[in-house]
Design goal:
The structure holds two protein chains of two kinds.
Chain A lengths: L4 E10 L2 E11 L4 E5 L6 H8 L7 E6 L2 E2 L7 E4 L11 H11 L5 H11 L12 H14 L4 E4 L8 H18 L2 E6 L11 E6 L2 E7 H6 L2 E6 L3 H5 L4 E7 L2 E6 L11 E4 L2 H10 L16
Parallel strand pairs in A: 3-8, 3-9, 6-7, 7-8
Antiparallel strand pairs in A: 1-2, 1-4, 4-5, 9-10, 11-13, 11-14, 12-13
Chain B lengths: L13 H15 L7 E2 L2 H8 L3 H13 L3 E4 L3 E4 L8 H20 L4 H15 L1 H4 L1
Antiparallel strand pairs in B: 1-3, 2-3
Helix pairs in contact in B: 1-3, 2-3
Classes of the chains: A alpha/beta, B mainly alpha.
């Protein structure tokens, strides 16, 4: 199946600094993908390249198999700054969207806002942060995109608004099957919501793949420190810790340790991601054939 | 109808949590053949999870022959679980009591035994998790 988004050899330079270098990554169609990384790692640059707002210095981006610049009407982008005009009424935002978008679904947008209890005659500047995000999301969904890209959609919201926005997004996925790529630096929020993970660190892609497979493929081992080196030599170790006679290792290996003095326990998404972010030289990337597999 | 709940950050994949909850409800008789499972959209509205995850769980249950998807209608329970007989349960319980006695004689406390049971269960059912 053609990936919804495919970047190959992507590079972006601001003056003499490379913001992104040699990034190759794919998001299969129908996925809800998370783009995760420390601040300044290149997340926003990667998203801007993915939606064609920036032209890359090297490499190319394809959306559903076509160059991104030819696929613009299939993409909706929700920037971190929520591009709404504070003086506009909600109604006027919708009219604005209708003028600019050939695939505009105004009826669905009105229905969605009514369900959310957001009045159409309210000025955008008088809405709460959560409501503003919901209006921006409604406008983005009314474009009937096949790929929806969101830059830190939850960053300035309280926990209740976060849950509401996420639920709205997940319901849209259930109804339309659209592909989502969203960036976040709060990994714990993504568990259960996203099914595909891309980690960008220091301008490079560090991890990319199915979240369930990634998490199930790692274990936290605990055992006697004097045997840790021998065990570590036999499998990829992402992080090591422990104190005194006890050692812990987060390993990329799902088989049970043969040595009975070692115990293994499953890890969650956040532990796995943090371990990789602390070890920027390690990568967990799919074989080329996995990138487009569902 | 079953109502799902989630233990986020438990390390158990979300789709497996849903699978386990359906199996559990089948064992307890809370779900019976013919019952409809909630649609992906209903689960999403309740739990704020990815609809693909719900579909993945239902595919897994379908693969096990526990449920069947009828296009346009929903996903329905096909057969129930938990056919262990009373006598089997009584016998297994007696064996476990004997095992705990042996453990205490060997100097194990409750926590030691729990850890041991958890390790063995983890090893035996690992293919389910991996």
């Amino acid at each position: 199946m053609t990936p919804a988004l495919e970047a190959t050899g992507l590079g972006m330079r601001y003056r003499r600094t490379w913001a992104l270098r040699d990034c190759s990554v794919a998001v299969p169609s129908g996925r809800v993908a998370a783009l995760v990384g420390p601040n300044g790692a290149g997340k926003t640059t990667l998203l801007h390249l993915a939606v064609g707002m920036l032209a890359p210095a090297t490499g190319e981006v394809r959306v559903f198999g076509r160059p991104v610049r030819e696929s613009m009407e299939r993409i909706a982008f929700l920037a971190q700054s929520k591009p709404l005009y504070a003086g506009f009424r909600v109604e006027e935002m919708l009219r604005f969207g209708r003028e600019l978008n050939p695939r505009w679904d105004g009826a669905a947008a009105r229905r969605r806002l009514a369900d959310l209890g957001i009045p159409l005659d309210r000025r955008v500047g008088r809405l709460s942060g959560g409501q503003r995000t919901q209006v921006a999301l409604t406008v983005a969904l009314a474009k009937r995109p096949d790929l929806l890209v969101l830059d830190e959609p939850l960053a300035d919201l309280d926990p209740l608004a976060r849950d509401d926005v996420m639920r709205g997004l997940m319901e849209a996925v259930a109804e339309t099957g659209l592909t989502v790529l969203l960036s976040s630096h709060v990994v714990s929020e993504l568990e259960g919501v996203c099914d595909w993970l891309v980690v960008v660190n220091g301008g490079r892609i560090q991890v990319s793949g199915d979240i369930d497979e990634l998490v199930a493929g790692h274990r936290l081992l605990t055992g006697p420190a004097e045997t840790a080196d021998a065990l570590a030599a036999r499998m990829p170790v992402v992080s090591r810790g422990g104190a005194g006679r006890q050692a812990t290792m987060l390993v990329r290996d799902a088989t049970p340790p043969l040595d009975p003095r070692w115990t293994a326990r499953p890890v969650n998404l956040e532990e796995t991601v943090l371990a990789y972010l602390r070890a920027p030289d390690l990568a967990a990337l799919p074989r080329p054939s996995l990138a487009s597999a569902r | 109808m079953i109502e799902f709940h989630l233990d986020r950050g438990s390390g158990v994949a979300t789709y497996l949590q849903l699978v386990h909850q359906v199996r559990h409800a089948l064992r307890l008789g809370a779900l019976r053949p013919g019952d409809r499972l909630p649609t992906a959209k209903e689960v999403v509205a309740q739990l704020t999870i990815n609809p693909n995850t719900v579909l993945k769980a239902y595919r897994e249950l379908e693969r096990e022959g526990l449920v069947v998807g009828r296009p346009g209608l929903g996903t329905f329970v096909e057969r129930s679980l938990g056919e262990t007989s009373m006598s089997d349960r009584v016998r297994l319980r007696a064996e476990l009591v004997q095992w705990v006695r042996n453990g205490r004689q060997a100097g194990l406390d409750q926590e030691d035994m729990r850890a041991l049971v958890a390790t063995v269960l983890g090893d035996m059912f690992r293919e389910e998790i991996a």
